[in-house]
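Example 3.2
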Amino acid sequence: MKLLEDLATKLGLKDPKYLLAIAGGVAAIGVIVVASSKTSGSSKPRKEKLALDSKESVLQTLQELAGQQAQMRSQLKKLTDEVTSKSMSLAQTCKRCTEMQLSDPLEKYGLSTVEFNKILGEYEDDPAVHEAVSTLMGSPPNGAAAVTEASSSLTTSKLLDIHKFMLAEYERLAAQPDKGSRDASIISFAAQAVVAGKTEAQYKISVEDIESAVLVHQGALSSSPEFSEINVKMQKAIAKLMGMPSSA
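Structure, written as tokens:
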């Protein structure tokens, strides 16, 4: 199976073109979206492309994206706490995201997320690229998820309930006519903070513990038709939020 199709299947995504638009989507929460604003109706000018025509440059870009993940996870946590404490709407959260000046590693190449995914497809049989993408998508470096007391208390059934809750929240946000921004990366990041805050408040558990539990139960979840259906619907909701076309 091709690199992107294989990873999409493992993460429960119907269409592999959303892999880097929903990075970390195995948990579908605390997600770090690296979608370029150029996938939406953003008015930002498209920069002249730099060369991204070698395995080395592709690996370097994946490393930059992974580095950005760590920084954005910290920013997302702070934003989630702020959204929860102030009961901020999606539009208000988008405004706060704009003030945070989030960066996009693909900007210097003038590439959208979908275009970068196509480039990755050229290296589908390369072990180094495959490992780098897997790491970016949330796979633990040593292949084992860190288990905490809180995450160990989450059963497969409970995780399904949590994901149903998150799906409902994403669909609610996607249905709002005014999202507060036309920038896909801003909207998606803001939506993650809003959904994460509501999920933590509802279930009294951190997004990190939920992600850890998902990785622990990945085998059972990946074979669950219900979990797969939830992830497909989640994909469509997030795509709608970002102004990206969703496949049927």
